[in-house]
Task: structure prediction
Amino acid sequence: TAAADPEALRRRALEALTTARARTSLLTECVDERDLTAQHSPLMSPLVWDLAHISNQEEQWLVRAVAGAPAIRPEIDSIYDAFEHPRAARPTLPLLAPAEARSYALDVRGRVLDVLERTPLEGRPLLDAAFAFGMVAQHEQQHDETMLITHQLRRGAPALTAPEPPSGGAGAAGLPAEVRVPAGPFTMGTSTEPWALDNERPAHVRVVPEFFIDTVPVTNGAYLEFIEDGGYTEQRWWAPEGWAQIREHSIAAPLFWRREGGQWLRRRFGVGEPVPADEPVLHVSWYEADAYARWAGRRLPTEEEWEKAARHDPATGRSLRYPWGDADPGPDHANLGQRHLRPAAAGSYPAGRSPLGVRQLIGDVWEWTSSDFLPYPGFAAFPYREYSEVFFGPGHKVLRGGSFAVDAVACRGTFRNWDLPVRRQIFSGFRTARDADAAAPGAPGGR
Ligand code: AVJ
Ligand code: FE
Result:
């Protein structure tokens, strides 16, 4: 794509900021004051913290850093600094009340729209291709996903509704179980995607040996076989820390599942329902994903394998922006943006398949990979070390592909998410892989 003209960039930035704000408003207006200020889980902030944090970041980056205007409310910076206060401690802070947070948000956004209108969109790294505006819109959407997790953890009457995902495609039944990805080089990461964040850069070549990857994410039905085969009671499937976690917390199924009268039920945004067998499994930790894969005679894909399966076009040797090509995600490509409040059945979104035929890489569920979150060769922190750099290391595992809860602006073939391997309140699932010379599924020693 040629460099967009400044007016197109401005429109795109405005649209991204406006879309994010509509979602933020919905997530914070559908519950009462008490639900906004309460802490629904020690893992999460009160919703009203996210609300003001979104605007405080917007003020810091767009009003102060980009426009060079004086601070509006510098005295609240420290309250909304994620590094100063762990989530569990945030309810005790002197937070802005919901009405104050809303008027602060309106004030900041009003100024930001002026800044967007009159600032040249080139000449400084933060301004090039309106990067800072794209970064702030992505940040807001990331917190909208975080707030949706808080909604999922909240007890009480349902506050959110959405239409069911399309039952498009013939389902997973007619698809091959796995796809072969040929050996060879591919380009990982990006140096050209205008709003890619620092950890996705730069583009570089990786040589990946031949491997096989699941055509669709692991479903609830498949995961149930692991449970029913005693998966949670056999130490041999588990990494030591994972085994310790499930013993300590008596974990025997994905988060939000419970067994009642011989049936598995789950709670989803305040509603109890039978666990749907054909839907990608959700709310599993990295340890659960890793144990399932070992039980199945397989393994998690590495991050580079995941990205090659998603982006490599064998016909041209080029890496695509998305599995389906270079077009921005549309509603037929992937389940993104909280349009639906659940993953779509495995095998859905045929138009979103990769050139090799892998399905649902983008949207539905974040996919755990076996990889630690590490910088690419040539990484440079931008525009601040605390976005990615301080999280690099063996403590965090990479997730890829985005969930139904994340907006397209914060999801790309190159986008990298990360979390602690014990986390399961996030919208996480996985698919499995195997080396080319490992036993095929169904073969002795295979799954
Ligand atoms: C990239 C999702 C891990 O939520 O901690 C939000 C995104 N960074 N505010 C997070 C983020 C700063 C980040 N993740
Ligand atoms: Fe943040």
User: Anything to note?
Assistant: The pocket of N,N,N-trimethyl-histidine (ligand 1) is lined by residues 139, 142-143, 146, 417-418 (CB under 6 Å).
